[in-house]
Amino acid sequence: MENPYLAIIFASLLIVFSYLFTQLSKLTKIPSVIFLIGTGVALQFVVRSAEIEVPDLSSSLGLLGIVGLMMIVLEGALDIKVHRRKLRTIFAALATSIIILGITNSLIASILYFTLNASFINAFLYAIPLSVVSSAIVIPSVHTLIPAKKEFMILEATLSDIFGIMLFAFWIKDPAEGQSYFEAISWNILISVSVSVVLSYFLVYVFLKIKTEIKFFLFLAILALLFSIGEYFHYSALLIILIFGLVLNNTHAFFRGFLKKLVDQHKVEEIRDEFVIITNETSFLIRTFFFVMFGLTMNLEGLFDPEAIIIACFVMIIIFITRALNLKVFLKSTIFPQMLIAPRGLVTILLFNKIVEHNGVAPFSEAILAWVIIGTNLVMMIGLMASGSSEDDILRINVGDASSTELDHKFDTDADDQNPEA
Questions:
Q1: CATH code, domain with 280
Q2: What is the pLDDT averaged over residues 87-101?
Q3: In 51-180, which ranges are continuous DSSP H helix?
């Protein structure tokens, strides 16, 4: 827009509407991303009817997506409490994120292999964006679930993002000579985790010692710098964000023994609360513009291509059947509504655009991408609408039917709060 005031008016209206969509989402349990994408599509019709030329927004979309991913993972990490009694939750989230990603990706790759006439190596790469659960959508959507299910979903979605991006980074480039993909990924995880743990301890300690009032966006800039450097060298820098958030939110668990003297718990709580406000607000802002821009740039002409719709339906069938079977193994029971919470969104769009940049052309019809994103979000909406929204719901589950994770959470939460150093 040539007039800066019109641009400010437009951006301000988007933020106001996004806030209203968030409130409407809480009432109806319809994901706000559906409203945001719909707003972008509506704007596309308005722009076309007014014969206004829309500039190329792909670079802006990519930048918003990267910053948004950082903020959303940090937002999720700051919402998770770590306790040894919750190790089963962490293990279940870790196992399901890896196994579901691997199986789903392989099965979707098989569909793309036969429908796109691509090599299986390329089909596997193309399937990765469609196989990653979007933490950008899961984290703000599961607020109505009981704490045990909410924590599991936040962890699983965040880990799915991390492992999906790692798999994509290695699959899009050849591993070192004499090294397999498995070896390359294993070394990457080992190095990434080691560096992330050391940096997280150091950053939390330094942050607590900073006296100046202007420090939060300084620190976010440092996190962004570390994240970008790590991603540039193809390491899983999201782990730095995740582990930093976990350490900051659980200093009682990570700073033990002689390390306990290094932190002031009262100051930690103050900083943590301010960090939560900043990350929540920033995540909200970025989500708003990202999904509106996605709707604005969506290719509407090919949206109703029958072949694209059929392929998208098969992809979604694979996603939810694979998810239900794996959750049944690791959670044993009460897998509803988790089995239906597998939305595709921000990471899916980011990785798809990276393939376009790498190959020069789209790997498959954007309509497939759009229908999978819309379809998985609608299924999640149905699951959330059908599920209970009260923490007391777990008391209505028979002990024989409840998973050990849920029972651990229900009966240990009070003990955790009373004895945080246990």
A1: 1.20.1530.20
A2: 89
A3: 58-77, 87-116, 120-131, 135-141, 147-171
